Amino acid sequence: MRRLSTLGWQVAIGLTALAIWEWGWGLQTAVPWLVPDLLDPYFVSKPSMIFKHFLRMSCLVSSDDQWTWGVAGGFARCMARSENNLWIATYVTLKNTLWGFATGVSSGFALGLLLGRSDRLSEIFYPYITAFNSIPRIALAPIIILAFGIGDASKIVTAWLVVVFLVFFNTFEGARSVDRDHINAARLLGAGDWQVTRTVIVPSTMAWLFASLSPAISFSLIGVIVGEFIGAEHGIGRMIIEAGARGEAAGMMVAVFVLAIVGVILSSIVRRIQAYLLRWRPAQPSGN
């Protein structure tokens, strides 16, 4: 019952927001003090116009608003006319996001575990890592584009830079906070350094790692989009820049909505994987 109530509130809030967005600007002349300028369709378009642009950008309808599925080869011809249509752009952005996420998580976890277990290495390298982490990633994006070009590699590197430090600091703190009694008990049973790391440190650190995965996938997507804004052959970020240059608010909002949907799906998948892998942990009591 509670879940249905929550879903009902979510749907009601969403429909209300869409209704205000669609028809709110029409009230601007009557009550200008109540309607903000942000609702001007020139800036944010309207849901109905965004939906029409989505159908065209996804090649579901042709430029004359005819369904392409009803015409032999209509969908294929529409796809062939644009090298960066909505499907290709989404695929490229999603692929680079997942690569940046995978490389950032794996390298961040390995680096955090290494420095978290070695006091000597931590003393030497931690100040440099902290200093490098203080540099805004967006300031490094143009340098990455110059070094790796406008292809996929630069987007993956940008996403990696955003993700690796988030995972590193979580893993580092997790490795530092392992219960010393567990380590001592393992050593009393004859475990060596590698066995202690594999059987005690890594399992204890996994909860810290999983806590960083959900924001990491979102930051990976942000890193890819930042790279596409600066220079890209394909991708949703390039679609947004091109639509903005043409003054097409509806086209920009289509890309923004696609990004939101992709982000929600990726975060949901990561949370489900996290819940499955951490199913051994006791469930937290929920509030009434």
Q: What does this 3D model show about the protein?
A:
This protein is an all-alpha fold and 288 residues long. It has a domain at 86-236 and 255-277: MetI-like fold, CATH 1.10.3720. It has twelve helices and no strands. It has helices at residues 2-23, 41-44, 47-57, 74-81, 86-117, 119-133, 137-148, 152-176, 180-188, 193-230, 236-246, 249-277. The radius of gyration is 24 Å and the shape is elongated. The two termini are 13 Å apart.
Overall strand count: 0
Q: Which CATH architecture of the domain at 86-236 and 255-277?
A: Orthogonal Bundle
Mean pLDDT: 83
The oligomerization state is: single chain
Provide the CATH top-level class of the domain at 86-236 and 255-277.
Mainly Alpha
β content, as a range? under 5%
Give the C-alpha Rg.
Answer: 24 Å
CATH H level, superfamily name of the domain at 86-236 and 255-277: MetI-like
Spans of at least 5 consecutive residues with low confidence: none
Q: What structural category arises from helix and sheet content?
A: mainly alpha
Largest sheet: none
Shape estimate: elongated
Helix content: over 70%
Count of helical regions:
12
Order of helices and strands: HHHHHHHHHHHH
Q: What is the CATH topology descriptor of the domain at 86-236 and 255-277?
A: MetI-like fold
